[in-house]
Amino acid sequence: MSWYKQAQSQFYNDLVALFPIFAQKAQEEYDSWLQDSEGYDEELGHGGICHLIAEPIADVIYSSIPYVEYAATTSCDWEQHVYVSTYILSPKKEGYVIDVPYSQYETGGGFTWKKIPEVKFDASYVTIREIDTDEIDYLNEGEY
């Protein structure tokens, strides 16, 4: 889909308008992440926080966009990462992945992550990518 068409979509525009709130939620999770000098957190061990960032983003989508049909965390198929998938079915099928890429606030891999110091999130940290109708159908069937 071209940038021009995306910009004309109400759903797309409504999601992008929420980017500052998504960044605020990411900042709240980041600020509460208390790792020691070895990268250990009492609650998370050596794990990262992408799932903790994604959960409130999905909640914000549901509470802010009344016509949204789906907004949930999704585990990435090709790496250890969690982001948000969201879609509507009407007036046309339209879906997006909303993400705050982990490389902006943590380093590592698998189940061992270390906080990048002093990150300050803003809307530019949030990404959006369109998903195709086959992926929407897959999500809609509850297979994720």
Short description:
With 144 residues, the protein is α+β, with helices and mostly antiparallel strands. The protein has helices spanning 3-8, 10-17, 19-31, 50-64, 133-140, and strands spanning 70-75, 82-88, 94-99, 106-109, 112-115, 127-131.
Please tell me the total number of domains: 1
Report the helical percentage: 25-40%
The H-and-E topology, N to C, reads as HHHHEEEEEEH
Mean pLDDT: 91
Distance between the termini: 24 Å
Alpha-carbon Rg, integer: 16 Å
Major β-sheet strand ordering: 1-2-3-6
What is the number of E strands?
Answer: 6
What share of the residues does DSSP label as strand, in percent?
15-25%
Q: Main beta sheet, described?
A: 4 strands, antiparallel
Secondary-structure-based class equals alpha+beta
Q: Can you tell me the residue ranges where pLDDT is under 50 for at least 5 consecutive residues?
A: 1-6
Shape: globular
Structure annotation, total helices: 5
Structure, described:
- This protein is α+β, with helices and mostly antiparallel strands.
- The chain has one domain.
- 35% of the residues lie in helices and 22% in strands.
- The protein is built from 5 helices and 6 strands; from the N terminus they run H-H-H-H-E-E-E-E-E-E-H.
- The strands form 2 sheets. It has a 4-stranded antiparallel beta sheet.
- Strand 2 and strand 3 form a beta hairpin.
- Helix 3 runs antiparallel to helix 4.
- The protein starts with a helix and ends with a helix.
- The N terminus is likely disordered.
